[in-house]
Amino acid sequence: MRIRLKRLFNYFSGYPIHLKIYVIIVAAIVSVALISLLVIRISVTDTMSVQLDERAKSISGDVAARTGDLLLTNNIYAMQSLVNDTINNYNDLEYVFILNEDNEVIVDTYPNHQVSTDIINANRVASDEYNHLITFQSEAGVIRDAAAPVVKGMDATVRVGLRDDSLEEAISSVTLQIITFLILLIVVSLVVVMKLTRVITKPIDELVGLTNRVAKGEMTARITNYPSDEIGDLTESFHDMLNTLEHTEAEKENYVNQIITRNRELMLLNDLSDHPDTTKDFNAMMNRFVRDLVLELKLDSAAIEATIIDQKQTFSYRAESCPEMNSNCLITCDCDCEKKQANVFNVFSIFAHHNEIGQIKICSPEQLDTYSHKILDSIANHLGTVIENNELTHEIKKKEEIRQMLLEKILTVQEDERKRIARELHDQTGHALSSILLGLKMLEDAKTPEEVTKQIEALRKLTHQSIEDIHDLAWQLRPTILDKFGLKTAIERYIQDFQQKLDIDYDVLIKGIDTIRLTPEMETAIFRIVQESLTNIFKYAEANSVSVILLRNHDMISVIIEDDGVGFDVEKMMNKDPSKFNLGLHGMQERTSLLGGTFEIESEKGRGTAIMVKLPMSSERGEADYENTYYAG
Q: Which positions, given as ranges, span the membrane (predicted)?
C-alpha cells in the first residue's frame, strides 16, 4: 500500500504547481457536491418511496370501495370499465385486477387477459387487514403491489401494481440540478483560482525559465526583479551557484575536449548496437551509421556495400563539401569537390564466417591516421556480426510469424466450431431433451392406458424429431457441398432442404459470385449466417415467406435475410445474457466482426425481421483454381 501511495505521489508531483492547486480545489468542491448529491438522493428516495407506498394503497382501497356493489350484483362489465378507467387515469400503473373468493381473476387490465400465477399468489391480504403492500422486481422495473379487500366476508381482493417511474424521475431531476450547479461552481472557482495562483507562480516560473536558459548554456543569465520572500532567497542562492558554475566551467572544458575523440569511437559502435526487428529499421540504422561515420571521422564520403538477406545493398553518405558526388564518386573518388584537391580512397572488407560479404569504401581528404584505421577495421569486423545477426533474426521472425499464423488459424477454427455446436445443442437438442423429460413425467402421472398410449406416441414423435435434428447438426458441422461446389450452390441446396421442412414461400437472389470463390473464412461465415437465420425463422418467426439476397458490389459482399414473421424487440433481445439467450444472433455478430464486416438487425413485433451483413472482400479466386482449392471449415 505504501509503495502504491508513493507511486501516486511521484506521479502527481510532476505536474505544475498551479495545476495542483486547481486539482485540489476542484477535488474538494466535487467531493462536497458528491456527498451532498448522495445525501439528497437517499432522502428523496426514502420520502418518495413512502409516498408511493401510500399512493398504491390509496388507489387499491379506492378501487375496492367502488367495486363492492358491482361485485354483489356480479356486474362484470362495470368492473372491467372501472379497472380500465383506473389504469388510464394513472400513467405509472402497471396492472389492476380483481380476484374472487377462489383467488380467480374476475377482471384485469392485461392485453391478453392472462395474469401470471406468480403475480396472483405474490400478495394476499389477511381478513383483518385493510390493505397489504409488497414490492418486487419485474421486467418493467420495481413494482409496488397493493392488495385491498372489496367487502369483508366475501374474500374478494383488488390488486394494483404501481411502477417506480415518478421516483426515478424525481431522483434524476435532483441529480441533474446538482450536477449543473457543480459544473458552474467549478468554472467560477477555476477563474478565481487562476487569478490568485498567478501571484504565487509568476516568480517560480521566472526561476524555472532561468534554469532552462542556464541548461542551454547561458551561464550569464540572471533575474533582475524578484520578491523578498522565500522565493527571493532561493533566487539569490541560485545566482551564487551560477557564479561558481561559471568559474568551474572553464576548467571542465579542457577535460571535455580530451574525451571527445574517445566518445566518437564509442558513438559509432553504439550506432550498431541496436537490434532492429524489421528490414526498414535495419536499413535506417545502417544509413544513420554511415552518416555518423562521415561526420565523426570528417570524411568526404563513405559507402557500405554488402549482401544482406540474399540482396546486394548500398548505404552511402557524402559530406556537404562534396555536393556533386554521385555513386561513381563513392567508388573511385574521381569527382570535383569544393576543396579542389585529390581524395584518398580506402577499402575495408566485411567478413562473416570467413567469407567476404561486403566492403566499406572511404573517400577522405587526406590519408587516414593509425587511429582511424583501427576504428574502421573494428567497425568492419563488427558489421559482419551485425549483418549475420540481422539475417538470423529475420529468419527466426519469419518462422515465428508462420507458426503464429498457423496457431491462430487452428484456434479460430476450433473456437468457431465449439461456439456453433453450443448454439445448436442449446437451441435444438437441449429443448428437445427437456420436452422428452417433461413427457416422461406426464407418462408417469398417466392414469389410463389410453393416456399412456397417447403420451408414448408423442414421445416417439419427439424422439424421432430429435434424431433428425442431430442428423442435421452432423451435416451442418461441415457441409461438403460448400467445399465442392461453392457458396452459391450450398446456400441454394440448404434453402431447398429448409423449404421442405417448413412449407413457406421463399425467394433467393445470388449475384456476383458465379465465377469466383471467396476466401474459405468468408464462405463459411456467410453460409453459417444464412443457416442460423433460417433456423431462427423456423423456430420463432412463424413466417409465411422468406427472402435471401447475396450480392457482390466491387469489393463488398452484402447478405440480407428477411421474413414476414412475428418479429421481436431487437434491443431487448441483444441485451440479454448471451450465455443463456440468443446464442445464434451473437454468433452471427461474432462471425461478421472477425471478418471486419458490419452486422445489423431490423425488427419490430408483428412486422417481421431483416438481418443485413456487409463483409469486405479480402481476397478471391478465379475459375482457374476453382477446383484445386482446399477449404477448412
A: 21-44, 170-193
pLDDT digits (tens, 9 = 90+) for 238-282: 888 888 887 887 777 767 755 766 677 777 778 777 778 788 888
Strands 505-511 and 545-553: parallel
How far is Cα 521 from Cα 527, in angstroms, rounded to an integer? 10
CA atoms within 13 A on the CB side of 278: 3
Query: In this structure, are strands 157-163 and 141-149 parallel, antiparallel, or unpaired?
Result: antiparallel
pTM over 0.70: no
Among 337, 362, 388, give the residue marking a domain's end. Answer: 388
Quick one: how many helices (H) and strands (E) in the chain?
A: 16, 16
- Judge if 175 and 40 occupy the same domain: yes
User: How many Å separate Cα 271 from the centre of its chain?
Assistant: 40
* Backbone phi, psi, residue 148, to 5°: -135, 135
Which of 229-233, 274-278, 429-433 has the weakest average pLDDT?
429-433
User: Helices (DSSP H) in 425-555: which residue ranges?
Assistant: 430-445, 449-477, 480-485, 487-501, 520-536
Answer for the pair 532, 427: CB distance below 8 angstroms, yes or no.
no
| Residue span of the structural domain in which 518 resides | 485-616
- The answer to whether 417 and 303 are in contact (CB under 8 A) is no
Residue where one domain finishes, among candidates 355, 388, 421: 388
pLDDT tens digit string along 87-107?
A: 898 888 889 999 888 888 899
Q: Do 273 and 173 share a structural domain?
A: no
Q: How far apart are CA 233 and CA 200, in angstroms?
A: 15
Give the Cα separation of 311 and 305 in Å (integer): 10
CA pair distance 333, 61, nearest whole angstrom: 110
